[in-house]
TrEMBL record, chain A:
It comes from Geomicrobium halophilum. The chain crosses the membrane at residues 86-107. This is Anti-sigma factor RsiW. Keywords: Membrane, Transmembrane, Transmembrane helix.
TrEMBL record, chain B:
PANTHER family: RNA POLYMERASE ECF-TYPE SIGMA FACTO, RNA POLYMERASE SIGMA FACTOR SIGV. InterPro entries: RNA_pol_sigma-70-like (IPR039425), RNA_pol_sigma-70_dom (IPR014284), RNA_pol_sigma-W_bacilli (IPR014294), RNA_pol_sigma70_ECF_CS (IPR000838), RNA_pol_sigma70_r2 (IPR007627), RNA_pol_sigma70_r4_t2 (IPR013249), RNA_pol_sigma_r2 (IPR013325), RNA_pol_sigma_r3/r4-like (IPR013324). It comes from the Bacteria. This is RNA polymerase sigma factor.
């Protein structure tokens, strides 16, 4: 009888891919074909031998060895988790702290008296005072930092004193503002900045 | 089993380290079997099996609880074993003496079974001979044969463990089986 069984057919038999009829035919063929018989028995033996070798146990104390080697999980700190969950708040905080430091440094940084505004004023070094003498007229705003102001003449505009005291015997037509608090100063800086930005654009 | 496993994994994830020992106990024999059959050497097998559990522990957050835990664990084990085989010096064999253990070859390192001494010897020789034949297979066929006939896994599970399509797994099983058949002919 001629052999119609290929290696692939035998594979299909062992992988359970043969249909019932095919399998019946295969069984009928086996007793007549020594080649197939051999192959079939050998595969069966191979599988049986392999399966028979499959009873291995882990060495004693295996579990305790694994457990001893586990890394100690550090509990994640709460604030770390919090930072992880709130990136926007963290960014805002960092920004706030940074700008606070900058403002603070500027605030305490210089003792130099600075004057902005147009007109003739006298600076009296001894008392750290800016004097607007009698009869003098300043057109526009006058801003004095780190010094006292004594207005005996006239200011046609706003008068602002930062980090200092003022005494006016003369006349100021605009608003008079004395800023000795850091927050008020920051607010003033922001106001001026926005005003400048608006007017320049 | 699966429900119990899920609860165990969850407990470990919540920080209960002791729950992990239950997982190790449940799987140590099968994991050790894979690494031992892949490597054919009990010292290396023990190292790899331990490493597999350590990796599973540290990477537990990446385990998808909707899938079978054993599949995930066996995947780690086979990957580690195959890596180990790759890093090995070529021509490594069971007959070679293990470094630093003069006169002690691979056979004497086989795991001992709780049987009578006489039977134990026969058993060890038997196991060693089969192991020798399995070790002669290329690693990919070896993995396929071990998972299919020793761990008794389905082709689908094997495909997930080996990260190969089912058709490829089938081919590997077939080729491994054929290679083994030719080697075991003389038995």
């Amino acid at each position: 009888m001629e052999c119609f069984v290929s290696v692939n057919d035998i594979r299909r038999y062992f992988d359970g891919e043969m249909k019932q009829e095919e399998r019946d035919q295969f069984y009928l063929h086996l007793p007549d074909c020594i080649k197939c018989q051999e192959h079939f028995e050998e595969v069966k033996k191979t599988i049986a031998l392999t399966q028979s070798a499959s009873h291995i146990e882990a060495p004693p104390a295996f579990t305790s060895k694994v457990m001893d080697n586990l890394p100690h999980k550090k509990p994640r700190r709460r604030w770390k988790t919090w930072i992880h969950n709130h990136p926007l708040i963290v960014a805002a905080l960092v920004c706030f702290i940074f700008s606070s430091i900058v403002f603070w440094l500027i605030w305490i940084g210089s003792d130099e008296v600075t004057i902005s505004g147009e007109g003739n004023v006298e600076v009296i070094r001894e008392t750290n005072t800016v004097l607007v003498p009698e009869g003098e007229m300043i057109e526009g705003d006058l801003v004095v930092r780190n010094g006292n102001v004594d207005v005996q003449g006239e200011v046609h505009g706003d008068l602002t004193v930062i980090h200092g005291e003022m005494s006016t015997t003369g006349q100021v037509t605009g608003d008079v503002e004395e800023i000795n608090q850091m927050l008020a100063w920051i607010w003033y800086e922001i106001k001026t900045l926005t005003k400048d930005t608006w007017s320049s654009s | 089993m699966d429900e119990w496993m899920k609860r165990c994994v969850q407990k470990v994830q919540e920080g209960d380290t002791d729950a992990f020992s239950e997982i190790v106990n449940a799987f140590k024999d099968r994991v050790y079997q894979i690494s031992y059959r892949m490597l054919g050497n009990s010292q290396e097998a023990q190292d790899i099996a331990q490493e597999a559990f350590l990796r599973a522990y540290t990477n537990l957050s990446s385990y998808d609880p909707n899938r079978k835990f054993s599949t995930w664990l066996f995947r780690i084990t086979t990957n580690l074993s195959i890596d180990k085989l790759r890093k090995r010096k070529p021509n490594y064999s069971l007959d070679a003496e293990v470094e630093g253990t003069e006169g002690l070859d691979g056979y004497s390192q086989l795991a001992a079974q709780d049987v009578l001494p006489d039977e134990q010897v026969v058993m060890l020789e038997w196991q060693a001979s089969i192991q020798k034949e399995i070790s002669a297979l290329p690693p990919k066929y070896r993995a396929a044969i071990i998972l299919k006939y020793m761990e008794d896994l389905s082709l689908q599970e094997m495909s997930e463990i080996l990260n190969l399509p089912v058709a490829t797994v089938k081919t590997h099983v077939h080729r491994g089986r054929e290679a083994l058949r030719k080697r075991l002919k003389k038995w």
